[in-house]
Amino acid sequence: MELKLKSISHGLRRMHYKGVSCIKFPFDYVQYQMIMNEIQPDLVIEIGTLRGGSALYFANLMLLQGTVGEVHTIDIATAEEDITIRRPNATVDQKVIDHPKIKLFTEGWQGYDLKNIEGFQRILVVDDGSHHYQEVLDALRKFGPIVTSGSYYIVEDGNAEDICSDEVYAELHGGPLRGIMDYLKEGGPFLIDLQKCDMFGINSTFNTYGYLKKI
Fold it and tell me: What number of other Cβ atoms are within 10 A of residue 49's Cβ?
């Protein structure tokens, strides 16, 4: 099963949305459009832009649903290699830059000013950042409180142990899954939505235990 997941992971890197690289597991594409329809968020905060395919996907879902709102996609202005993904072509696609519903923030999630959320009523957060344990935990601490009741904080790639090499996984210090569990132990006001995690089979998602619903 581990070899199969690694093979799938390689395939995901060749996926595109409207011609823009969008590294998402197909089952999770389905979950996202269902959640967007269910919650109707007027603000989606995405940690981790890369080329911007998923930001484009979220923004176009808003357009299709007739939702008034924005996608705030956050990354760092660099083409250097990060912990989990080689990023020699990390330039954001022009379709994303020009999209009327997308705003780019390039100082990392630590530099994102929470004043930017003022006026929004339904907030959804997606963390597809470095996947390093401490960064996942610290991002949850920063953005968890602003997720609106009934909405989601989605942590991607909780299955890092299965899709990364041993060397890379060691650098993640337990990765997203450890960050999720430690945040919940701190009393973070979320429940793991097992209906979302297990929709296609037990944790048949790359976001292992990562669909966190605000209570």
Answer: 24
β-pair type (70-74, 102-105): parallel
Q: Hey, where are the domains in the chain? A: 2-214
pLDDT tens digits, one per residue of 176-213: 999 999 999 999 899 999 999 999 999 889 999 999 99
Q: Which residues lie below 8 Å from residue 19, measured CB to CB, with a gap of 6+?
A: 93, 95
Question: What distance in Å separates the CA atoms of residue 11 and residue 173, rounded to the nearest whole number?
Answer: 25
Query: Do 94 and 178 form a contact (C-beta atoms < 8 A)?
Result: no
Longest dimension (CA), the chain: 46
pTM above 0.70, yes or no: yes
Query: In the CATH scheme, what is the homologous superfamily, with its name and number, of domain 2-214?
Result: Vaccinia Virus protein VP39 (3.40.50.150)
